[in-house]
Amino acid sequence: MEAVLPETGLDDGLDDDEEDTNFFLTELEAAARAASAAAAAKLRVLARHIALGSFLLYGNPPVFVAAIQHFTKALKAVQPSQDPELPTNSESPARLALASLLHHHRGVALRELVVASASTTSKAAVACTKHAFEAQRHALELAQRAQDLRLQARAAKTMGLLLLDAQAYASALTHQQEALQIALEEKDRELEARVYANLGNLALAQVNFGHALSCHHRDLHLCSSKVLDCRLGRARAHRNLSIVYAKLHRRDLQVKHEKEARDADQNAYLNDIVTHQGTSAGNICFQPSSDIDPALVDLVAQNLAEIVRGLSAQPTPGSTVENNEDDSISSALEDEWRTAGVDLEAAIAALSTGTQVETLTQIRESRLTSPPKSLTALSRHVSIRINNYSSAGSLTQPEEPLHVQSQET
């Protein structure tokens, strides 16, 4: 006969009221969890746009219009709320710095779109250049509000590059000098290398071959150092050196640096992503002086890592293996590579109307049908003059324009 003892039922330590309270969420708790989930989802989308934008801009082959659109979407996600009743942290230094960073790289992509176009003087090219200037102006203003010196310098150097394109050499030099001064003070070697690339192109435009070589060799030295070790930068430096040696009719050195550029350019940005996950060479989120949301930085790094894994796993051309990961970031890249051939006029129309690249009727089918093979502060006056330049006024107009396609960004 089974003995029945009093009060032998299992006791979980909770009374009925406590169970009801924990089992059912209150309206406030449910709303809080929903808001948290929505914020996390928005952060993931933002990180995806930043990762795709940076890879499409700096990867090989670049897809400038798609990069611009990804940075534009990312910017919309960080814009302050228009509802005065809702709290906003859009004025925090980190948020301002992020917006500045996105404007900067969007402006870089706009300029590169013009450089890659058949004509840099067409109506569409002029409009695109205007957009590029506006993007850098916004980047500078936001960086100043955030008191972020490194982002101020990046905006300044790119403005200088646009001024170089316009053959406004004195102003271009001033902007590059300001950027270099900050890079040296901040000990930002990656930024310093980029500025020297610009100074080299400026010297070449002024037919100062000796100084051009000096600047590009300095760029190469910095990018080859253990501290920086940036393959994308090495490819840029070798390419620029080959251009200078071609102007000097030094065929041997031209060919040498062209080969070095090709070797370094082989999956250069993919390599930098893998080897520099925690620096500005592999993740643009490390370029500001301000600390951007660590969760966002980590998500961008994860997306970039997914790009590397996705491209490494790509089947060879002609393979019957299908990619079933329709939502993967690598699938998105494939779609945008397939539609990479866009007229400049169509690109401007897309940017002006917000039309997606994939739906443009003006798109020409690109010859590229498969992705690349897998991976085997300005608030103070700066009076410094760089090396051989004694003054901005000493720069003279070249006898004929030298069309230098800068490899700096």
UniProtKB/TrEMBL annotation:
PANTHER family: RAPSYN-RELATED, TETRATRICOPEPTIDE REPEAT PROTEIN 28. It comes from Phytophthora fragariae. InterPro entries: TPR-like_helical_dom_sf. This is MalT-like TPR region domain-containing protein.
